[in-house]
Amino acid sequence: MISPLAYVNPNAKIGENVTIHPFAYIDENVEIGDNCTIMPYASILSGTRMGTGNTVYQAAIIGATPQDFKFKGDNTFVIIGDNNTIREKVIINRATFEGDATVVGNGNYILEGAHIAHDTRVGNGCVLGNGTKTAGNCTLDDSAILGSGVILKHGCHIGGWTLVRDGSRVNKDVPPYIIAAHNPIGYSGINAVLLSKQGHLSDEILDNIAKAYRQIYQCGTSLNNALRNIRQMVTLSPEIEYILRFIEQSDKGIIGNVQ
To answer: Is 115 a catalytic residue?
Structure first.
C-alpha cells in the first residue's frame, strides 16, 4: 500500500493497512497508525505521532517546525488522534519547547488551508473552516466550530459547542455553547440549532443555558454579578458549571456583546 514513488524514511514506523500515495514524504521520527491514508505531496515531518484512520490530503504539512522565535531546535511533537480528516494545504506546527506537543484529538475535520500553530490543542469533533488560522497556544474544546477565514490570536480558548462565524477575528476567549460573530467579535446568541441536535440535552438545560447567557450579556451588570446571579437563579448542571468554570478560569477574558 506504499507507492514506490513516495519517500518513506526507513526509521518511520508505519502501521497496518496504511496507504501512502506517490510523492508523499514521510520523515524520520514519525509514527503513523493503522488504516491511515496519506495523499500525494503530503508531508509528515519529524516529531509527528498519528493514530488510526486518519486521512491527510494533498500538500498538507504535519509536524512543521514552529513559527516561534523562541524555538531553538528542541525535540517536540505533533500528536494526532484517530479518524481525523486533514484537507489540502493544512499546516500543523509542532510545539516550541522540549517534550511539548501540539495536539489534535479525534474525529476532527480540518478544511483546506487551515493552520494550527505551535502548542495549540484541538479537542474532539471540531471543525476548522477553509483558511482558518490559530496562533500559538490556543485551545479548542470538543465540538467547537470555526468558520472559514477565522483568525485566533495567541492563547485564545474556544469553548465546546461554540460556532465562530466566518471571517471573525478572535482576541479573547469565547465561552461554550454560543455563536460568536462580527468584527469586533461579540456574543450573538446561543448555538441553539447545533445544541438541539446534540441529543442528550433536554429543553430545560437548553433554556438554562440561554438564561445564563442573558445574565452575562443582556442584564447590564458586571461579569462578577452575572456569575453570582447564575448560581442563584439558574439550576446547576454540568453544562452550567462548565460555563461558569470556563469564564472564571479565563486568562484573556471573554468576548463582549455584539456592537
So the answer is: no
